[in-house]
Amino acid sequence: SIKHVAIYGKGGIGKSCTASNIAAACADEGHRVLVVGCDPKSDSSITLVGHRIPTMMELIQGGGEIKEEDVVFQGYKGVRCIEVGGPEPGVGCAGRGIIVAIDFLRKVSKAMEEVDLVLYDVPGDIVCGGFSAPIRKGLVSQAYIITSGEYMPLYAGNNISKGLKRLNTPLAGVICNSREAAGEREIVESFARELGSRLVAFIPKDPIVQECERRAVTAIEGAPDSKIAEVYRALAREIMSGAEPRVPKPLSDERLLELTRT
Amino acid sequence: SIKHVAIYGKGGIGKSCTASNIAAACADEGHRVLVVGCDPKSDSSITLVGHRIPTMMELIQGGGEIKEEDVVFQGYKGVRCIEVGGPEPGVGCAGRGIIVAIDFLRKVSKAMEEVDLVLYDVPGDIVCGGFSAPIRKGLVSQAYIITSGEYMPLYAGNNISKGLKRLNTPLAGVICNSREAAGEREIVESFARELGSRLVAFIPKDPIVQECERRAVTAIEGAPDSKIAEVYRALAREIMSGAEPRVPKPLSDERLLELTRT
Ligand SMILES: Nc1ncnc2c1ncn2[C@@H]1O[C@H](COP(=O)(O)OP(=O)(O)O)[C@@H](O)[C@H]1O
Ligand SMILES: Nc1ncnc2c1ncn2[C@@H]1O[C@H](COP(=O)(O)OP(=O)(O)O)[C@@H](O)[C@H]1O
Ligand code: SF4
Ligand SMILES: [Mg+2]
Ligand SMILES: [Mg+2]
To answer: Which atom, in ligand 1's list, is nearest to the CA of A41?
Structure first.
């Protein structure tokens, strides 16, 4: 059966970078992967395809007939990518856009069925009904929260876990994308444990990631023998082998402050 | 006539800190101020009131009769504060919450009429129809964008300007809250100029701000003779004397990348 996995986290924390490297690592192991970019920044697929691709919302708003090859793009080792795109600034609903795009994709393409893994890259700054659309539509079977040891990304992560709890959706694990903050690993391990989950990956901050990004490739493709590529491969295996996802138990605001003050 | 001013910017860029210091500086000059916190983090008023205050959404969701003193709190030199609060994570719409809260406030209180300045502290990570609610409802007469010289906050600022343009709302100016990035002042000055606006304040990064925040006071109250307090006072005078707000001309994605690569 197809795994539908969402990666949620604060803007700028490393969702797209991590998701695209996971996708590339899974493709290396022979899995068929579809990446669905749900961030209005539409930058989930640049390192997989080699350049920015048109968004579904741009195409839908433009009118006219749309075929599968207008929205689904193939990248590294056959990874397929779509970018939902954002609402028209100031008027639309980012969340409704995700639903419109997914419904449209189903009409023009079989991409959602002919894969082993669908990865949703979703911003977690605002945990509203809109951004939880992939979950409310019953698409996502498990979610990962990506954070660092700093207060703001943890606050966003905790808020995401409140949304997951409210929607009775299991949390499969917490990923720490290191910002080299003091005591980061212990803080994020405690955070994951208190949520009733666990830390599934500690991704070091590594300049190779940005070098590859500048060349519009993932670290998996651009530096396959590097230590960081191995970290992404291990995370990809974890995601495909499946953890025991559990509905999270969010922390109180006081506890979250305590945890980051240590 | 009452000035309704919105301050938009990416999460963590310094909206609440800047808005509360502006409010305190305006109160020092004898202006009557109301701060409306529209960020689901509900931390716009902590340094004005001295502690976190209950949010309107919590009270409204709790049911029961609500009086003015349950939602409107007085802080430093009589500054009045309300926190809208966020949607229930995963289900509500952060934007609709703002409209519900403002309509409710009007029913229980005259706070919106008995002031000279209403400051809306609004997150700008997602520029959807929801967060532009204060604008669409005709409340906000002018907006300020707060950013640093880094790509992510500038990207959010540019997206906000697209929303302002779409809603034909004037941009009164750009505020740079320094992150001490290389060439920051020049980058943000160019950004402001190309939007058809101008840089109205360059706020240095200053440890006094965080020291005061830990004591739950603004820099205006906690360090009135400091250089940073003077910067906030100058910005407060700029906001009250009014710039010539103009509808912005957003930059293209390519130009924005170019600007931050210099
Ligand atoms: N492990 C890492 N080491 C170094 N840089 C990283 C790492 N992960 C992400 N980054 C950098 O952080 C920035 C933000 O990452 P991105 O994936 O775009 O965040 P998001 O999708 O959450 O907004 C990118 O420039 C990326 O190169
Ligand atoms: N000029 C400044 N100098 C030093 N620290 C600052 C400054 N402005 C904001 N900060 C700090 O940055 C953090 C984020 O600011 P905040 O106002 O909460 O952001 P936002 O409301 O945009 O999410 C706070 O901890 C605050 O103390
Ligand atoms: S549901 Fe979320 S994305 Fe949609 S309009 Fe409301 S706040 Fe914006
Ligand atoms: Mg991204
Ligand atoms: Mg704030």
So the answer is: 23
